[in-house]
Specification:
Blueprint (H helix, E strand, L loop, with lengths): L1 H30 L3 E3 L2 H7 L1 H13 L1 H29 L6 H25 L1 H28 L4 E3 L14 H11 L14 H27 L1
Parallel strand pairs: 1-2
Helix pairs in contact: 2-7, 3-6, 4-5, 6-7
């Protein structure tokens, strides 16, 4: 009986020695994985190309900035007496609500028209901003991949949902270094007719829809 029990125990131990590595292997593999996070917007904004473009833009588009500031001051000078009159009328003993409503609408219309005018003046500046950012973001994927490989990172995530992380998981500086190498500077002034990627996609979708409609129309006519 003792001999039989010893044989059974030996068999169990033998099985355990075979099964154990199969159970431990995934845990060991997981320990080799390293997760890091990257704040994409912060990396782009702190890149050399972006910062240089911000400085250059003040000179290149100085005329637009000056025109916008002059026009903003003129709009504000137009609004100030209207706002003062509105506030005085509103605090009167028996304010005329209909008149107040009309004054408020006038102020709002001037503000909205002024805002649209300022946006129009600064449109070249906004286009330059979008052009520089697109050039930088075109290199961002490669920069993240290079930084991850150099630091042994197997998974890169956004910091939006992170509740806690050690500093060693922050890959921002590594990505920034890679990005500065890939694109040390960016073109400031976009070429004639250039549009941001979002607008280009919208135009392409509209053109595709028009082409599809044009091909369907003869078929519908033939069917008649």
């Amino acid at each position: 009986m003792k001999t039989l029990m010893k044989s059974a125990l030996a068999a169990v131990l033998a099985v355990a020695s075979v099964v154990a590595p199969a159970v431990v292997a995934p845990a060991a593999a997981q320990s080799n994985e390293r997760v890091a996070f990257v704040n994409v917007n912060a990396v782009v904004a702190n890149s050399t190309a972006y910062q240089t473009a911000q400085t250059q833009r003040q000179t290149t588009y100085a005329a637009q900035f000056q025109q916008a500031e002059t026009r903003r001051a003129a709009i504000q000078a137009q609004l100030d007496p209207l706002i003062a009159a509105f506030n005085a009328a509103r605090t009167a003993e028996n304010p005329d609500q209909a008149a107040l409503q009309q004054q408020a609408q006038q102020i709002q219309q001037i503000q909205q028209a002024g805002q649209a005018e300022l946006q129009q003046i600064l449109a070249p500046v906004a286009l330059s901003q979008a052009y520089v950012e697109e050039q930088i973001r075109d290199q961002l994927g490669t920069a993240i991949q290079n930084a991850a490989q150099a630091n042994g990172v197997t998974l890169v995530i956004s910091p939006d949902t992170i509740l806690h992380a050690e500093a060693s998981h922050n890959l921002n500086e590594a990505v920034l270094a890679q990005l500065n190498t890939l694109i040390p500077s960016a073109q400031l002034v976009p070429p004639e007719g250039w549009l941001p990627a979002e607008l280009r996609a919208q135009q392409e979708a509209a053109a595709a829809a028009q082409a599809a409609a044009a091909t369907e129309q003869p078929a519908a006519t033939t069917g008649r």
